[in-house]
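Intended use. Records like the one below are meant for learning the mapping from a protein sequence to its folded structure. Do not use them to infer anything beyond what is encoded.
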Amino acid sequence: MKKIVITGPESTGKSTLSAHLSEHYKTIWCAEYAREYLTTNGMLYTADDLLNIAKGQIELEEKTETEARNNLYFIDTDLYVAKIWSEVVFNSCHKWILKQIAQRSYHLYLLCNTDLPWQADDLREYPDLAFRQKLFCMYKDACINSHTPFEIISGTNEHRLQMAITAVDNLF
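Structure written out for the chain above:
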């Protein structure tokens, strides 16, 4: 099973791209657990909440993977999100999250750029483009340090989808 993570800062089209890729390849995608958690528990989160989100993400990934088809499985973010948010908001990251990152492996990261317009919703926190670009650099560093192939995905939603399809097809 080829596991492909769609990652990047808030409001960069990750969920849209995940849905379109799963439709294109006739498989399933794993949603970002943090959205469900924060919708239920509110936006005043703690470092312990980020740990719970990380654990929930793993559980959801493993549960949803059983439904994947055609040797492809798309994941809307992974534990690097918990790591980066922990570092940005709390200046540290729980060791359990770091250990899980080291143990998990994926086949490709699709890193969504910040060139889409910001779309506010109740769960997004940082609309400032300069800060989003800083976050993008943090995600890029995470991709590089993972030693997993990655592609930067930019442009309109249609262009992003074509870039992502090309990157996924190149896996095979």
